[in-house]
Design brief:
The complex is a heterodimer of chains A (532) and B (414). With 532 residues, chain A is of the alpha+beta class. Chain A is built from 18 helices and 17 strands. In chain A, strands 2, 3, 4, 5, 6, 9, 10, 11 and 12 form a 9-stranded antiparallel sheet that branches. In chain A, strands 13-14-15-16 form a 4-stranded antiparallel sheet, with helices on one face. A two-stranded parallel ribbon of chain A has the order 1-17. The relative contact order of chain A is 0.07. Chain B is of the alpha/beta class. The chains are: A alpha+beta (532), B alpha/beta (414).
Chain lengths: 532, 414
């Protein structure tokens, strides 16, 4: 490690900065950096491993351990065969973490009933149902309570708010307290002989004991603390039987059984809240295909999404290309400044630009109608709102195409265009027969990617029109809703609360639509490659 | 220069040292958690909540940590947050309660009878939810509702609706404004148009015999409302209202003295005062005989999450929420920090501000925003119906528009 491998012979001009940087980092410095980074990776891995193990997540912990060992081996064992692995590892890790894991977890959610009312595990739901079923007892007694200890056991010193009677309540039940040895202030017991009243830190330490203390008072009825200074007498109205996995209404005898879809349901159809998260097979996909609420707008929304993405990309590209050609003359004055100005819309955060446009396009108060002296309902008429959506999207997106086309134009070999001219082709002909096809070879994949991107461009629709305006016959999806904003509405506005499972299923549909369109397009553009 | 082999050894040691450090850090951070009570609150409420909660925490051995979040995320993340990052107490609005309790995210509370007696019935009802047994899930802290704000230089606070209509249109002509009354809409805002809607006989959900909101009884296009609905078409035609007026335009028009009336809430009191206008806050006039025009009522308050028990602070959290925060002194400090009326009536009696008092009297007879999850299906359609009928030229007649909204809502609720 004494000499850098990139040391340049004296006759050659100073090596490029890249070569010099490479030389610098190949020495001891590089090695130190490498080991530091590896150390950080290992430290993070051990940290993650211990947390995962703590939570009992065995599989995830093993994956972390395995990957870490692989990384260490790849970068520490000096072997020629491991060189490709060194380059593959970072990319693969990022691919798995940011692409594969979200897709798998989304697909997994699509097969569950995860939604408002079905958010807990089954055990949690059973506990919650028991809690919700507690009613005030027949006497509805309430007590002021003072947590205390006797022989180390937690006790509540209770004073009946209605009668003023004094008790000590423990898990064995109530025991009357003699008034002579008990001190009451402001309706609350502050001291009692034989009991050690808890204060400050002691209360905090005993929190779980206080919360879980159940003082039986006969039958099902019991007294429980509510916070630190109050206790109430409660009576369950439902009883859970773990043997049969059913809830029974104590008063009416109605039986609630697990319906396999995350709820306890009675024969009358009445369901207990809350339910729980569970796998429900293809039910969400069935809903998409059969529920008129989801199915009916789907085709209309799909058509508009397609038109929106297609028109946006086409017009963005056309304008970008036109401007790129116009500004491509080398003798143009202030060329750089002009180019910089054209790229400005690209530099403004898109959602901010959309919000500004929303103000500008307001038909009564906006600047656009005032300048044009028109009365166009830009955002409040279904057709015009669609025009506005494309318009705003074009404004945001054309600089991108301007940049891409400028780059691509400069890559078109001048010999070819000159040769065409020599052969007697006019300007337009040169463009149509030579420049444009060559340009398409470079930009076609980007056009397809841009189409897929616009297909799922949630922000522009959400902030500009919110999917509206809604015509009288429209439910869930408005006139300008695209598939992704429509999915959002299904997930959060239809059916009461959030429906994550259904939304995940719809997004899988969208994935296949976009993937299908992209696949066909790529297949078709292979034809362009032949020009090369 | 070090030899490669020696470097390897040094590096290996560094790896081990760092790893041990990380493991130690992981070990200690886990034990810290239980001594802290975590509260999620929105930016407007963080300072007052921090101050009041710390007053409670003094000599309790608990540290309070108030985490600032936006309202929407508090409501959504509470369903998905990992237990170790979860709050023990959240500050939120009463209409979240149906969703949160059917998700099992919040636990029921039982304040002392003497404490409960200090609150208006509707404030406690607003935070109560349950299909079989209604339970209280939040401690009400502050009340809010919209009222009518009049620019007294342009018009007088109206006695009747006809009077308001006349004055608003006269002011509109004088100031050459595009609209008579500032009512924020934009893409639809059922909350701000509700006084008109209720004044014409509309309601969202009826109540069943048990006193619970009944999602199968939707009153968006009830016969009484439909009889009166053509008035909306009239207001649209004469430019009394316009759905193109969004939140910022509504505010701008009123504060710049273009519109005589603004339907808004106490959250803009500071801005109104800063603008130096002469103004008066009052209740809505009655639109049609026999029907009161009332606003939606909002109640903000504290809720205890299901995570408090696992964190070992549930009794503490309940003490903070259903005992301390419901007392008059805490209520007065929390509510007045944000220009709101305290929910506790004893604290409310101490409020001297005449504007807040006027907002409170405009709330009489108001309807708490429905707190059942089915309400999520209503906002969009109800707002869209109003927008369709009040966008100037090309508007859909109100009857047709609201009948469509009713159908759509019923279809969504299923």
């Amino acid at each position: 490690m004494t000499s850098a491998p990139f040391a340049s012979p004296p006759t050659v001009p100073p090596a490029s900065w890249l070569a010099r940087a490479l030389g610098f980092f190949s020495g001891t410095v590089g090695l130190v950096i490498k080991f530091t980074l590896l150390a950080v990776v290992n430290a993070l891995a051990i940290w993650a491993f211990s947390i995962l193990l703590n939570d009992g997540k065995w599989i995830a912990a093993l994956v972390v351990a395995g990957v870490t060992v692989l990384i260490d081996v790849a970068y520490l064992v000096p072997s020629k065969r491991l060189v490709p692995v060194k380059f593959l590892i970072p990319g693969t890790i990022f691919l798995v973490a940011f692409v594969v894991v979200p897709i798998v977890s989304n697909a997994n959610i699509a097969f569950t009933n995860w939604s408002t009312g079905h958010n807990l595990s089954k055990d949690e739901a059973i506990t919650a149902i028991e809690e919700v079923s507690l009613a005030p007892s027949a006497e509805a007694s309430t007590y002021t309570a003072t947590p205390a200890r006797k022989d180390g056991e937690i006790v509540l010193l209770l004073r009946d708010e209605a009668t003023g009677e004094l008790y000590a309540g423990s898990e064995d039940g109530l025991e009357p307290l003699p008034a002579e040895t008990t001190t009451v202030e402001n309706g609350t017991i502050v001291a009692a002989e034989g009991y050690e009243v808890l204060q400050g830190d002691e209360l905090l330490a005993a929190d779980t004991e206080i919360t879980e203390l159940v003082i039986p008072t006969g039958g099902d009825v019991f007294i429980r603390a509510e916070g630190l200074s109050l206790a109430v007498e409660l009576q369950p109205t439902l009883r859970y039987d773990p043997e049969t996995d059913t809830f029974t209404n104590i008063e009416t005898g109605a039986v609630f059984t697990d319906n396999g879809e995350g709820s306890f349901v009675a024969e009358t159809g009445e369901a207990l809240e809350p339910g729980w998260r569970t796998h429900i097979g293809f039910a969400n996909f069935e809903t998409i295909l059969t529920d008129p609420l989801v199915r009916d707008p789907f085709f209309r929304v799909f058509l508009w999404t397609f038109a929106y993405a297609f028109l946006s990309v086409l017009i963005q590209f056309a304008i970008g290309l036109f401007l790129a050609i116009t500004l491509n003359k080398p003798d143009l004055k202030l060329q750089r400044i002009q180019r910089a100005f054209l790229v400005l819309p690209f530099a403004i955060p898109a959602f901010l630009a959309v919000l500004v446009w929303q103000g500008l396009l307001n038909d009564e108060f906006g600047v656009v109608n005032q300048l044009l002296r028109t009365d166009i309902p830009w955002l409040f008429d279904p057709t015009w709102a669609k025009v506005s959506c494309v318009l705003v999207n074009v404004w945001i997106g054309f600089p991108y195409w301007f940049l891409v086309c400028t780059g691509a134009l400069q890559a078109v070999p001048e010999e070819l265009t000159e040769a065409a001219r020599v052969d007697g082709a006019g300007g337009l002909q040169v463009f149509r027969k030579v420049t444009f096809p060559l340009l398409l070879v470079a930009t076609a994949p980007l056009l397809i990617a841009s189409f897929a991107f616009n297909f799922n461009l949630f922000n522009n629709i959400y902030f500009l029109t919110g999917g509206g305006p809604y015509e009288v016959e429209q439910t869930v999806a408005g006139s300008t809703d695209i598939l992704i904003s429509y999915t959002y509405k299904i997930a959060f506005q239809a059916g009461g609360g959030a429906q994550y499972g259904l939304a995940a299923a719809v997004s899988i549909f969208i994935f296949f639509i976009v993937a299908g369109i992209s696949a066909i397009s790529f297949w078709r553009t292979k034809a362009l490659e032949e020009i090369k | 220069m070090l030899s490669t082999r020696r470097l390897r050894v040094v590096a290996g040691l560094a790896v081990a040292a760092l790893a041990a450090l990380a493991a130690a850090a992981a070990g200690t951070s886990a034990t810290d958690q239980s001594q802290t009570l975590v509260i999620w609150a929105d930016a407007d409420r963080v300072p007052a909540v921090t101050q009041v909660a710390n007053g409670w925490a003094a000599n309790k051995g608990v540290t309070v940590r108030v985490v600032q979040k936006e309202m929407g995320p508090i409501r959504q993340e509470i369903a998905t947050v990992a237990a170790e990052n979860a709050p023990d107490v959240i500050v939120g609005a009463h209409d979240w309660v149906g969703e949160l309790s059917s998700n099992g995210s919040v636990v029921p509370l039982t304040p002392a009878a003497a404490t409960r007696a200090q609150f208006p019935r509707y404030a406690l009802d607003a935070f109560s939810y349950g299909t079989a047994i209604k339970k209280l899930y939040g401690a009400p802290v502050a009340l809010e509702n919209v009222a009518l704000v009049t620019n007294t230089k342009l018009a007088k606070a109206p006695k009747t609706f006809a009077d308001m209509e006349k004055q608003a249109l006269a002011a509109k002509k004088k100031t050459k404004a595009q609209v008579g009354i500032s009512v924020q809409q934009g893409q639809g805002d059922a909350y701000h148009m509700y006084p008109f809607f209720s004044g014409l006989g509309g309601y969202v959900f009826g109540t069943n015999r048990a006193g619970n909101l009944d999602p199968s009884d939707i009153g968006v296009a009830n016969p009484r409302f439909l009889r009166n609905a053509p008035l909306i078409d009239k207001w649209n035609k004469e430019g009394l209202i316009r759905s193109q007026v969004n939140d910022s335009i509504a505010k701008d028009l009123f504060l710049k003295g273009k519109t005589a009336y603004w339907i808004t809430g106490p959250w803009f009191l500071a801005d109104i005062r800063k603008a130096g206008l002469k103004y008066q806050v009052s209740a809505f006039p009655q639109i049609v005989p026999g029907t009161k025009s009332v606003p939606f009522l909002g109640v903000q308050g504290f809720m205890v999450t299901k995570f408090a028990a696992a964190h070992g602070v549930q009794a503490q959290a309940k003490d903070l929420v259903s005992n301390y925060m419901m007392q008059p002194s805490a209520q007065l400090r929390l509510a007045s920090a944000n220009d709101r009326t305290p929910a506790n009536t004893r604290a409310a009696a101490l409020v001297k501000d005449k504007d807040l008092k006027a907002f409170a009297s405009a709330s009489v007879g108001g309807v708490p925003m429905p707190n059942i999850p089915a309400m999520a299906s209503v906002w969009q359609d109800l707002g869209a119906a109003w927008v369709r009928s009040t966008k100037g030229s090309g508007s859909t007649p109100a009857r047709r528009s609201f009948v469509a909204a009713q159908r759509s809502i019923a279809q969504k609720i299923g």
